[in-house]
Amino acid sequence: MTRGRRTAYRRHIENLIRSGNGAVPSLDGVTRSEPARVAIVGTESSARSHGPTTGLAVYGCTEDEAALFQELAPRFGFAPTITDAPLSEANVELALGSRCVSVGHKTPVTRSALRALGGAGVRYLSARSIGDDHIDVGFASGVGITVESVTYSPHGVADYTLMLMLMAVRHAKSVICRAGTHDYRLADTSGKELRDLTVGVVGTGRIGSAVVDRLRGFGCRVLTHDNRPRDLTGHVPFGELLRRSDIVTLHTPLTVETRHLLDSRRIAQMKHGAIVVNTGRGALLDTRALVSALDEGRLGGAALDVLEGEEGIFYADLRHRSVGSDLLLRLQAMPNVIISPHTAYHTDRAVTDMVENTLVNCLNFEHRRRHA
Fold first, then answer.
1. What is residue 25's predicted lDDT score, i.e. its pLDDT?
2. Are 212 and 243 contained in the same domain?
């Protein structure tokens, strides 16, 4: 969205809030009718809101998100109570008096916390993420809570995915590590150019499609696979994609069906020396099977922004503590494996989208409730 369109959108939102009419569109123009340490880092803002305010409890909030909630929530008619702690039974009282809460994606939401929220009168939970695999949506519904996720710009993840591909095919990890020790010799193995490779994109939703657009700009051959194929050329059966691709990149939601989508059997079908890229969800990839294939030299490398079992590791400062994951340590020791801590989504545009669309979702929920 351009700066002009974003400004016009915000004015439109404020007009809707003043008038109290109609459902509110999200930032992508689609009307949304679905969608540790406890430290309060923000409470009800003194900024002027349009009309009466409604409580909104925001959990697991980073500093950049908190600043946006404090700035924007009053414009939507919400008075936010904000904490950097993830939702738990111990801090459910922060949501007392609020029908809506917002949670981050970094920590699973337990059933006991959902049950406590339901008992506190919460009826709507907005997840600040595209996926909701960290929440038992069925259980939440059983205790009277509707769960919806948000949309945000797909371009940050798509850009990051291409960066990981380029780093992997140019052996960037080894080059940078050697240069850091003042070893400026060329690597024994030369890199590859994307235009000479075939890239298989698994999952062609908003992010996967954005990756495909970028890959075509590099001139490489692109294969795609999706259970619900979009209008994209290059769609092939999954097995064929695995056999033909030099790089396989994962962009599907995590569900019961897609858990360990790449397991030992499917990894064995992949082209010898292929590279796996994952910026989707860690459990799409069987980590033990990946480590085994890398150890045996069947795969040429991996670039992973997400990892099975990352909870409690990613987003924590473990410089002076045990990491607690032998598989992660084995992967990090490999010169052909790049690991980053679930950061592909983290751009200023995406964070703004997540906060604004959280507020849009909550506003629409309140509108539906009042007009039911």
1. 40
2. yes
Same domain? 194 vs 324: yes
Q: Are residues 143 and 114 in the same domain?
A: yes
On whether both 69 and 92 belong to a single domain, the answer is yes
pTM: 0.84
Burial class (CB within 10 angstroms; exposed 0-12, middle 13-18, buried 19+) of 97: middle
Known catalytic residue at 342: yes
The residue annotated as part of the active site, out of 65, 308, 310, 366, is 310
Is 281 part of the annotated catalytic residue set? yes
Integer Cα distance of 69 and 126 in angstroms: 14
Six-digit token pair at 144?
Answer: 């009277």
pLDDT under 50: residue ranges of the chain: 1-2, 5, 9, 12-13, 16-51
Nearest-angstrom CA–CA distance, 277 and 261 = 13
Q: Kindly give the interhelix angle for 155-169 and 348-370, rounded to the nearest 10 degrees.
A: 150
Each residue's pLDDT tens digit, 244-267: 999 999 999 999 999 999 999 999
What pLDDT score does 39 carry? 38
Distances (CA, A) of 109 to 86, 133, 182, 242: 8, 10, 46, 34
> Tens digit of pLDDT for each residue in 214-223?
999 999 999 9
DSSP readout, 162-229?
HHHHHHHHTTHHHHHHHHHTT--PPPSS----GGGSEEEEE--SHHHHHHHHHHHHHT-EEEEE-SS-
CATH number of the domain encompassing residue 101: 3.40.50.720
310 is an active site residue: yes
Question: Which of the residues 281, 308, 356, 366 is marked catalytic?
Answer: 281
What pLDDT score does 240 carry?
Answer: 97
Catalytic residue among 65, 225, 342, 356: 342
Cβ neighbours, 10 Å, residue 315: 15
Residues 6+ apart with CB under 8 A from 261: 202, 250, 252, 284, 285
Give the count of domains, the chain: 2
* Mean of pLDDT over the chain: 87
